[in-house]
C-alpha cells in the first residue's frame, strides 16, 4: 500500500468524476515543510504559529518570526501557505505573559481576543508576515473569530501595518488572501455575513465540535459528546460551505475531521474545497478521493443532513462508501 501511495505524491487530487480538491497539511514549525512536500501536500492549510512563542521565556522578535515565515513560504515554492495568527490560550499557555488564571480558559481571553487587546504582540506578528509575503503565496487567517467586528478590527490592523510598511518602502505582496477560522458556532451561523467580507473560511472542527456540543475537547469524562458526525455539526458545516460558495469564496477545513476517512466522503459531497490534515494522512486521503465520485457523494447530502444521530451517519457512510 505504501508503494501505491508513493506513486501519488506528485499527482493532483481529483475525484473519479474529475473534480479537484486541494489536500493541504497542518504544520507547527518550518521543519515540518519537508514532510509536507514528501507526502504530496498541495498547500499548507494551517501553520500553527503558537509554537514560535512557546517553550521559551520571552516573545519572539519580529525578525525571528520573519525568518520562520520566509522559510515556510520559500520552501513551499509558491504553493499556498495559510498562516494562522497567534492562537494562545485555552490549552496553550504562555507563562511569560503573566495572564491571570481563568475559570474557563477555553471560553476566555485567548487568540484574537488577546491579539486585539495586546496589539503590540499582534502588530509585530503581522509585520513579520507582511514582510515575508513576497517570498511565496501567503494567506493570513485569524483564529477564534466570534463576531464580524472582531474580523473587521483585525483586518483594519493588518491593513494599517501594511500601509505603514509600504510607506517606508518595504515590499509587501498585494495578493495576500485574508480569512478566518470558523470554530465558534456564532460564526458558522453568521457565515453568510462573513462570506461577504472574508476571502476564505477554514473550519476548525476541533473547537467547533467542543463549542457546539459544550464538551471540553480535553475531558475524557465527556468525550462521548465529542461527536464530529453529529448532524448538528454537519448542518453547521453545510451552512458555512453554502454561504461561502454563494459569494464565490472557498472553504477549507483544518480540524482533525478533515483527514478522517469517514468524514472525507461527506465533506466531498458537501462541496468542501480544501482539506488540511497531518502530512501523513495526505496520500491515504488522495487515494480515497481518487476512488470517490463527488456527484454521487453530493447526492446523499439531504439524506445525511436529515439523519437523527451520529451513529446513523457513521453506519451510512461505512456501508455506502466502503470505509472501515
Ligand atoms: C481547530 O480548532 O479545529 C483547529 C484546527 O485549531 P486548534 O486545534 O489549533 O485549536
Ligand atoms: Mg482551534
UniProtKB/TrEMBL annotation:
**Transmembrane feature ranges:** none
What is the main EC category here?
Answer: transferase
One cellular-component annotation, GO: cytoplasm
Domain named PEP-utilising enzyme C-terminal is located at: 2-291
Which cofactor does this sequence's record say it needs?
Mg(2+)
| Compartments reported by the entry | Cytoplasm
One of the record's GO molecular function terms: kinase activity
Substrates-to-products reaction catalysed: L-histidyl-[protein] + phosphoenolpyruvate = N(pros)-phospho-L-histidyl-[protein] + pyruvate
Gene Ontology BP terms: phosphoenolpyruvate-dependent sugar phosphotransferase system
Q: Does the keyword Metal-binding apply?
A: yes
Keyword check for DNA repair, yes or no: no
Residues that bind Mg(2+): 183, 207
Record-listed E.C. numbers: 2.7.3.9
Locate the residues binding phosphoenolpyruvate: 48, 84, 206-207, 217
Instruction: Keywords in alphabetical order, please.
Output: Coiled coil, Cytoplasm, Kinase, Magnesium, Metal-binding, Phosphotransferase system, Pyruvate, Sugar transport, Transferase, Transport
Which residues act catalytically here?
254
- Give the primary localization class: cytoplasm
Note the superkingdom of the native organism: Bacteria
> Its function?
General (non sugar-specific) component of the phosphoenolpyruvate-dependent sugar phosphotransferase system (sugar PTS). This major carbohydrate active-transport system catalyzes the phosphorylation of incoming sugar substrates concomitantly with their translocation across the cell membrane. Enzyme I transfers the phosphoryl group from phosphoenolpyruvate (PEP) to the phosphoryl carrier protein (HPr).
Name the family: Belongs to the PEP-utilizing enzyme family.
This protein is called Phosphoenolpyruvate-protein phosphotransferase
Species of origin reads Metabacillus mangrovi
Q: Which gene encodes it?
A: ptsP
Q: Which residues of the full protein are shown?
A: 249 to 572 of 572
